[in-house]
Design a protein that fits this description.
Layout lengths: L1 H7 L4 H20 L2 H25 L1 H4 L16 H10 L21 H14 L8 H4 L6 H11 L1 H4 L6 E2 L5 E2 L7 H10 L14 H14 L17 H32 L1
Helix pairs in contact: 3-6, 5-6, 5-10, 8-11, 10-11
């Protein structure tokens, strides 16, 4: 016991204990850490990037450049993120059929797996918005009333009050948001495709994006009924004003003609 007590008081005793503890900790980590799983994930990611680069070289490089640096026919894709790739490719906007004022929505050319590979390659060139999770874009739990307020403030000027779409200048247009996947609506708000401004989380929170998606889901589904009666296409004040002008003013003119005719007939009698 005296020898053990003497060793404890030795100046190097604390160092020996510390080294022993580090060795045990390192051994336990090496034994139980998911090294193989992490290595497999890295291998799968590297393979996805390689396959995505091949797809990019065939279908995208002619417009966006061999290194995605952009050309006169297409913008740079460095730093756009996987969300932009998923939106543009899965809505069929890319690859474009021909150069024009705006890329329209059409049937996608690439499968979801190929799109993921393209997104992996583009993401490897620079950080950008990531593809959202289902919990982020699902309308479940969203505040419909708040979403309607946000949509009317930020989006209705172009997409109209219920997302029916509308014309812009120089042949451009704000597309209809009916039957659009909530995932793609969220990605569009994240990335700001074409003429649309972007709404990153610093500008519009994830919760507010979810609220807007919940509002659009409510107004663009068959279960939703207009509380005011005939919705006139949901096009907002333009269609309402036209309806009032044609039918309202027309009814007043018809009434005036009827009154004048009755008055003239009464005078003749």
């Amino acid at each position: 016991m005296k020898k053990l007590s003497a060793r404890r008081r030795h100046p190097l005793a604390a160092v020996v204990v510390l080294l022993f503890a580090l060795a045990v900790t390192g051994g336990l980590y090496a034994a139980f850490a998911p090294a193989e799983s992490a290595k497999a994930d890295d291998t799968a990611q590297s393979l996805a990037i390689e396959e995505g680069k091949k797809l990019y070289s065939v279908g995208c490089a002619s417009c966006h450049g061999t290194g995605a640096q952009g050309t006169s026919d297409g913008p740079s894709l460095v730093g756009v993120g996987s969300a932009a790739v998923d939106f543009q490719v899965r809505t069929g906007r890319m690859p474009m059929q021909q150069q024009g004022a705006q890329a329209p929505r059409k049937k996608p050319v690439y499968t979801q797996a190929e799109t993921d590979q393209l997104a992996a390659y583009i993401s490897s060139l620079g950080a950008g918005p990531a593809v959202p999770s289902k919990d982020q874009y699902s309308p479940d739990g969203g505040d419909i009333a708040k979403g309607g307020e946000l949509f009317r403030t930020n989006c209705a000027q172009c997409h109209n009050f219920t997302g029916k779409g509308g014309a812009l200048s120089n042949g451009k247009f704000a597309p209809s948001l009916e039957d659009v996947d909530p995932k793609h609506i969220y990605e569009a708000m994240q990335t700001g495709p074409q003429n649309m401004p972007s709404f990153p989380d610093t500008t519009m929170s994830q919760k507010n994006k979810k609220d807007i998606i919940a509002y659009l889901d409510e107004v663009n589904t068959s279960k939703s009924e207009s509380p005011g009666g005939l919705n006139l296409g949901g096009l907002g004040p333009v269609s309402e004003g036209l309806f009032g002008w044609i039918f309202g003013l027309g009814a007043l003119i018809a009434l005036a003609i009827w009154v004048a005719a009755r008055t003239a007939k009464a005078k003749k009698s």
